[in-house]
Amino acid sequence: MNHSLAPAASAALIRKEVAGLPRYDPGADPDVVAALSGTHRVIKLSNNESPFAASPAVAEAVRQGLAEGVSRYPDPTGRRLTDAIGKSLGVPAGRLVLGNGSENILELLCQAVLDPGDLVVTQAPGFSLHEIFPRVMGAQVEKVPVTAGFAFDAEAWREALAAGPKLVFLANPCNPTGAVLSSGQLEQVIAATPPSALLVLDEAYGEFARPDPEYPDGLEALRGRDRPWMVLRTFSKAYGLAGVRVGYGIASDSALVQALDRVRTPYNVNQPAQDAAIAALGDGAHLANTVRRTAAEIARVTDRLRRAGLRVVPSSANFLFIDTGCRSDRVAQELHRAGIIVKAWREPGYENHIRASLSTPEDNDVFVRCLTEICAKDNQ
Ligand SMILES: Cc1ncc(COP(=O)(O)O)c(C=O)c1O
To answer: What does the pLDDT look like over 288-299, one tens digit per residue?
Structure first.
């Protein structure tokens, strides 16, 4: 059999929208970095995960669920979890959608809403899946840049929204900068978004920002608005459940949820994930503790990096966007040699920046020391 024809034949099958897509960059492989650095304890700061264990109630709930067996499919409606979320937010369960991570819901929204050629507006720098999923559907993506000082550019947003997008993805706080939109700025976006468009507020890092008095609760801002909207949240970040994959969306109306139900795979959230999320939601004290410890580290590390002369965007999330003053891919490679993984930013205009999630105080101290040494050397 001639195998050499296969790659060309496969390539010819791929839709042009898919062939031209940028790849999602999950960051360096910890095993590769361990081998490169000769350390067994890699410090992984690349994916905005929580360095703290989830609530002990999570392990107990998952253990119990597993003891009952995994031979049955999970609940396709996620009823116990949507009931618990609905109760905690004062939202009917029929206006909630669950996802295999909130990224799954981003994908479902694009599949349900977008036709080829539709316009999607999002921000730059931004979360790559806000661009990749719309492009899979053949949509055009307009990325609105922040100002030179990383602030929300109201005029640029107004202009982009006036072009008539069908879908708007806006992360608050912003990934990768960690900056938040104030209530007034959010109101401007809501007012400028065409009433026929779907406005999606991605609050993946919302729990970290909630103590900030400037930070608007997207659900409160959108609740009761007579327009299509969705607020996305996740158990991956502040709740520390990135490994089990569960996120949720609160929708303006049940018709939107029903559309996503038609698109999604029926069992998209596995049972251990549903059990884990219910347990995590029930432990508010643990969440508050994670948020408090994270904020303390954000403040401390920001201060240390600034004292070392680095520019750091003020962050209300669990990560920092840092101007290294030189090519960030080189900085990232040098950090790999020290056993530390960060994201070197690749969006045009930000190639000198890295995004680093914060970890425990001990790991953060190692990161600050290595980064400042590398930057001092490279910027000489
Ligand atoms: C802004 C934003 N939205 C959504 C997600 C997806 O998170 P998950 O699928 O783990 O819920 C992420 C993950 O990093 C993110 O940064």
So the answer is: 999 999 999 999
